[in-house]
C-alpha cells in the first residue's frame, strides 16, 4: 500500500474586515500581498483576486447584511502548491448555498427574462480550481482553492 | 457609496465613445447611465455604435458586469451596436466566460476600434 504524505497547511495571513460595501477591495489587496512570492502566475493571481472580491462582497452583503459591526473573516493558507482562502460571514443558512441561485443566462438577461445581476457566484466558480461551502451554526464559510501551477481554467486564457 | 468611476463621452461620425476610468462596480450606475445618455444624445447624427473604452479602468466586479449588461440591453433595444476596447487580459477573459464578448466586439485599443468602425477620418477626430 502506498502512503501519501500531505503537506501541512501553513497560515499566510488572517484578518477581519467590517461589513461595509467596498471593503472587498481591501480583502483582495491583502490576499494578493499574502500570496506574493508563491510563484502564482499573473493570470491566476488576477482570477484569485476576483474570486476573493466576489466572495467578500457576498459575505458583506448577503451574509452580514451590510452591518459594519459584524466582521468578515479572511484566512489564507498554503499547503504545498495549493492556496486556500477561507471567507467567513455570520449568515448561516441565510447566505444561499452556491448552486441554488439561477445560473446566469446572458441572452435572458438582455431580453429582460432574468435580472442583469447574479454574476457573483458564477464568477467565483469560474475563477478558482475549487469552491467549497461549509455552514456551522451562523458561520458560513466559502473556501477558494487555487493551485499555484496550471489547472483547469487555464484554457480561458 | 461614492462612485470611483468617471466617464467622458465623445461623439465621432457614426460612433459615440464612452471613456471610463477607475472602478466599474455597483456605485457606477449613475455615471454609466448618464454617460450613455450623453453619448447617444450628444448632438449630431444619432450614433449607431457605442464604444466602451476600459483602458483606464482598473477594477470591474459582478455588479459592474450587471451594469454593462444593462447598457448592452438598452443599446440592443435601440438597435445600436456596442463594442469595447482597452480591456486587460483578465477582463477579456471575464467578458468571454460571461459571454459578453458574443454580443460586444472587443478591440485591443480605441484607435483600432474607431478606425475599424468609422474609418480614418473619425480616427483623426478621436485623437
Explain what the structure shows:
The complex is a heterodimer of chains A (157) and B (127). Chain A contains 4 helices and 5 strands; from the N terminus they run βααββααββ. The longest helix of chain A has 22 residues, at 42-63. Chain A has one domain (10-149): 2-Layer Sandwich (Heat Shock Protein 90), CATH 3.30.565.10. In chain A, strands 1-2-3-5-4 form a 5-stranded antiparallel sheet, with helices on one face. In chain A, 30% of the residues lie in helices and 27% in strands. Chain B has 127 residues and is an alpha/beta fold. Chain B is built from 6 helices and 5 strands. In chain B, strand 3 (49-60), helix 2 and strand 4 (81-85) form a beta-alpha-beta unit. In chain B, helix 1 (29-40) runs parallel beside helix 2 (62-77) and helix 5 packs antiparallel against helix 6. The longest helix of chain B has 16 residues, at 62-77. The mean pLDDT of chain B is 90. Chain A binds chain B through residues 21-22, 24-25, 43, 46-47, 50, 53-54, 57, 104, 106, 109-112, 115-120, 122-123, 126, 156-157, and chain B through 1, 23, 26-27, 59, 61-63, 65-67, 69-70, 72-73, 76, 88-90, 93-94, 96-100, 102-103.
Amino acid at each position: 500500500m502506498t502512503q501519501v504524505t500531505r503537506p501541512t497547511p501553513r497560515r499566510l495571513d488572517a484578518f477581519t474586515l467590517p461589513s461595509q460595501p467596498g471593503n472587498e477591495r481591501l480583502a483582495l489587496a491583502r490576499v494578493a500581498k499574502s500570496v506574493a512570492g508563491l510563484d502564482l502566475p499573473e493570470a491566476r493571481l488576477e482570477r484569485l483576486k476576483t474570486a476573493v472580491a466576489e466572495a467578500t462582497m457576498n459575505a458583506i452583503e448577503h451574509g452580514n447584511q451590510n452591518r459594519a459591526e459584524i466582521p468578515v473573516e479572511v484566512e489564507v493558507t498554503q499547503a504545498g502548491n495549493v492556496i486556500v482562502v477561507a471567507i467567513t460571514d455570520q449568515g448561516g443558512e441565510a447566505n444561499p448555498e452556491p448552486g441554488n441561485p439561477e445560473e446566469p443566462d446572458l441572452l435572458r438577461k438582455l431580453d429582460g427574462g432574468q435580472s442583469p445581476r447574479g454574476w457573483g457566484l458564477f464568477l467565483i466558480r469560474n475563477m478558482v480550481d475549487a469552491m467549497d461551502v461549509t455552514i456551522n451554526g451562523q458561520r458560513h464559510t466559502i473556501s477558494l482553492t487555487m493551485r499555484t501551477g496550471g489547472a483547469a481554467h487555464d484554457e480561458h486564457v | 457609496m461614492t462612485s470611483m468611476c468617471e466617464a467622458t463621452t465623445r461623439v465621432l461620425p457614426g460612433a459615440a465613445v464612452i471613456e471610463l476610468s477607475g472602478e466599474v462596480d455597483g456605485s457606477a450606475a449613475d455615471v454609466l447611465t448618464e454617460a450613455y445618455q450623453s453619448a447617444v444624445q450628444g448632438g449630431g447624427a444619432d450614433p449607431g455604435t457605442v464604444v466602451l473604452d476600459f483602458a483606464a479602468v482598473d477594477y470591474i466586479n459582478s455588479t459592474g458586469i450587471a451594469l454593462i449588461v444593462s447598457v448592452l440591453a438598452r443599446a440592443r433595444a435601440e438597435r445600436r451596436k456596442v463594442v469595447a476596447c482597452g480591456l486587460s487580459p483578465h477582463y477579456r477573459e471575464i467578458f468571454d466566460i460571461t459571454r459578453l464578448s458574443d454580443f460586444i466586439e472587443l478591440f485591443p485599443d480605441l484607435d483600432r476600434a474607431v478606425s475599424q468602425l468609422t474609418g480614418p477620418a473619425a480616427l483623426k477626430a478621436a485623437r
